Amino acid sequence: MKIQLESLNLHAAERLLCEQALLKSGSIVEAAKVLGITRHALKRRIIKHRIEWPRPGSTDSGE
Fold it and tell me: What is the total count of domains within the chain?
């Protein structure tokens, strides 16, 4: 998958990568594997970037 960044802002890039991995994988565990980080590290980034997970309307817990 190719991701195009709008700027060289690392904060925005990290958020985009986390969001894309979560959307593609469907769970925190699988998204963390795709990103090469631990589940706990991804959860910290979800909180840091205020990413809504699971997505509103989803019945899955995301883990």
Answer: 1
- Write out the DSSP string of 1-45: -----SSS-HHHHHHHHHHHHHHHHSSHHHHHHHHTS-HHHHHHH
Q: Which residue is associated with the tokens 């958020």?
A: 15
The verdict on residue 58 lying in a domain is no
pTM of the predicted model, to two decimals?
A: 0.84
**Is 2 inside any structural domain?**
no
φ and ψ at 25, to 5 degrees?
-85, -35
Q: Mean pLDDT across the chain, nearest whole number?
A: 91
Domain assignment present for residue 3? The answer is: no
